[in-house]
Amino acid sequence: MQYFAVVTLNGLTLAALYFLAASGFTLIFGLMRTVNMAHGGLLLLGAYLGYEITTASGSWVIGLVGSAIGTAAVGALIQACLLGRYQGEELRQTLLTIALSIILADLMLAYWGGITYQIEMPALLSGSVFLPVLNIGYAAVRIFVMVLAIGIGVGLWLLISRTKLGMMIRAGVDDRDMLRALGFNVGRIFIYVFALGGALAGVAGNVAASALSVAPGTDVQYLLFSLVVVIVGGMGSVGGAALGALMVGLAEQYGLAYAPTYSVVFTFGLMVLVLAFRPQGLIGKAEV
Q1: What is the 3-state secondary structure (H, E, C) of the chain?
Q2: CATH for 2-277 (3.60.21, 1.20.1630, 1.10.3470, 1.10.10)
Q3: Predicted structure pTM score
Q4: Where are the transmembrane segments (predicted)?
């Protein structure tokens, strides 16, 4: 039972990481219908920026904030200078962001090299926490990742469903022409959304580099699982992204623990089943 509890906790930690990575992706891809295949590159850039800023300042919090600001600025530039002019043209957006992801990956490889980086956590999160119900000790940083993911999820849900900006974002997705006719600057709103998605990618990269580690190829890994999470949970739904991340994270960890040879089958088999019986995702809305 203790082994099962540890595997479950590891699955929840991985689910939290996948949700952090997918939250910005579902915000951009699910709500704006913008195919941002450079999302993984922004995540890896956030991890590298977090490492550099944390090393220079000696503060993990400053590194987290700095990486979020840096990737938010890059995300806003991508939307303002490149993707904004191709809004609604999914094929061009896909090809353009694939090219951007390759360029970002090569530039980061040239500057930071091919080694693995890990950000040093604060002393408060470097130990373990005893869980009396399960009678085991568990890494404090992993518990922090789960709490952070819950906090960001609640914050995103409140932003989208309870604020004026969230209302404008949803209206811009459903009827962009009507929102523009009402006097709102749709292009500027989408830049704000892309900046927020970039900031979330930076936070996810920083946390991933702290709880685990990052290296060239991490961008592709998290982009792939962000796509799976959004497909399983449903596009445009923060709750769907959370549910999708939970199912994917647990499926992957249970597969690694109990059937390591076929662990990848658990993850992608889950996606196939969802696509077969509910193509819009578990919580996503069917296209009319």
Answers
A1: CHHHHHHHHHHHHHHHHHHHHHHHHHHHHHHHCCCCCCHHHHHHHHHHHHHHHHHHHCCHHHHHHHHHHHHHHHHHHHHHHCHHHHCCCHHHHHHHHHHHHHHHHHHHHHHHCCCCECCCCCHHHCCEEEECCCCEEEEHHHHHHHHHHHHHHHHHHHHHHHCHHHHHHHHHHHCHHHHHHCCCCHHHHHHHHHHHHHHHHHHHHHHHHHHCCECCCHHHHHHHHHHHHHHHHCCCCHHHHHHHHHHHHHHHHHHHHHCHHHHHHHHHHHHHHHHHHCCCCCCCCCCC
A2: 1.10.3470
A3: 0.88
A4: 12-31, 60-83, 95-119, 139-160, 189-212, 224-248, 255-277
| pLDDT tens figures, 12-63 | 999 999 998 888 888 787 666 777 889 899 999 999 999 999 999 989 999 9
